[in-house]
Amino acid sequence: MIRTLRIAEEVTYTFDHGSKEKVGELSDEKIQILGRALSRQVDEWKVSLPPGVFNIGRIKRSYYSVRAYMREVGLYGLLQGQAPSVARVSIIYDCFNSTMKYLSSVLECPLDEMADWTALDWRSLNFIIMLSTKSSIILDSAYVSTEASQRAAWLGKCLDTLCLRAQELHRLKTESCSYFQKISTEWANMKVYHQNCLQRSLPSSTAANGAQMSTQLATQEHQPCHVPYVDNAFDLDPFNELFWAGFADSEPGLGGVFPM
Q1: Which residues contact 101 (CB under 8 A, 6 or more apart)?
Q2: In degrees rounded to 5, what are phi and psi of residue 152?
Q3: Per-residue pLDDT at 203
Q4: So which domain of life are we looking at (predicted)?
Q5: Which of 104, 100, 98, 101 has its CA nearest to residue 39?
Q6: Burial 150-186 (b: 16+ CB within 10 A, else e)
Q7: Which residues of the chain have pLDDT under 50?
Q8: pLDDT tens per residue across span 117-145
Q9: Would you state the pLDDT for residue 234?
Q10: Which of 16, 118, 128, 35 has the alpha carbon at shortest distance from 76?
Q11: Do residues 210 and 229 touch, judged by C-beta distance below 8 A?
Q12: C or N terminus of the chain, fewer CB within 10 Å?
């Protein structure tokens, strides 16, 4: 766990998400190279674990959380209407893939175990949900395919399940704290936002350069799938800062609800 935190610190230093200037200096190809180098570090940590340890929920979630975090930078730097490069799509797809594996691990977690989560566990889950939603909007708005539809549907069902769990935990807690109710509402709003963005970006026709983009994607190590590219895919703003507002705000009394 300490090793993953150190790698996360290195990711923060390498990409400096809070600096628009530094992010702007990095090309998509350079980001991809740096991301792969950082991935090797976390993969080496995974290999070094004793047999069976990786199957522990918190360890597995820590691994996928770091992998998603080191690719978060791929969500920044695109202007509205700007088509992402093949390298950028690969970065975002890797981010989404890591978030889905994280969320799959969460869905396997019993409710009574989640009731004992710390505030850090819930903030990590909230962060992963935001990354998965934003990366899905970018990928599934830009590429139309059966896989994209299945991916969006899975994310929607995942959010529904997590909302139900949060509501159940809210009912189980006797303290007067509405944190679980709050995050349940926020996740439900994220699902609506996600679905609205995808509906707004549905193409009226297939772009002429679709086959060329599919061929380029086939050469990548990771790829969404062979799908037509949509010219009007970014006729919306999935990078609006309002999407982040309020999703990580703390609430009075939170420290008493989640034992650290």
Answers
A1: 64
A2: -65, -40
A3: 56
A4: Eukaryota
A5: 98
A6: ebbeebbebbeebbebbbebbeeeeeebebbebbbeb
A7: 204-260
A8: 998 899 999 999 999 999 898 887 766 56
A9: 34
A10: 16
A11: yes
A12: C
Q: Give me the pLDDT at residue 218, please.
A: 47
pTM: 0.72
Dist CA 233 CA 62 (whole Å): 33
Give me the amino acid identity at 204. Answer: S
Amino acid at 17: H
pLDDT number for residue 28: 79
| Separation of alpha carbons 159 and 154, rounded Å | 9
DSSP count for the chain of H helices, then E strands: 11, 0
CB-count exposure of residue 202 (10 Å: 0-12, 13-18, 19+):
exposed
Q: Provide the phi-psi class of 117: left if phi over 0, else alpha when psi is between -120 and 50, else beta.
A: beta
User: Which sign, positive or negative, has the C-alpha torsion 113, 114, 116, 118?
Assistant: positive
The closest alpha carbon to 129, from 150, 173, 84, 160, belongs to: 160
Coil, strand or helix: which one is 143?
A: strand
Residue 61 burial (10 A CB sphere; 0-12, 13-18, 19+): buried
* Bridge partners, residue 229, by sequence: 143
Q: Residue 8: exposed, middle, or buried by beta-carbon count in 10 A (0-12, 13-18, 19+)? A: middle
pLDDT score at 148: 74
Helices (H), 82-118: 86-107, 111-114
Calculate the alpha carbon distances from 98 to 17, 46, 57, 131, 157 in Å: 19, 14, 15, 10, 17
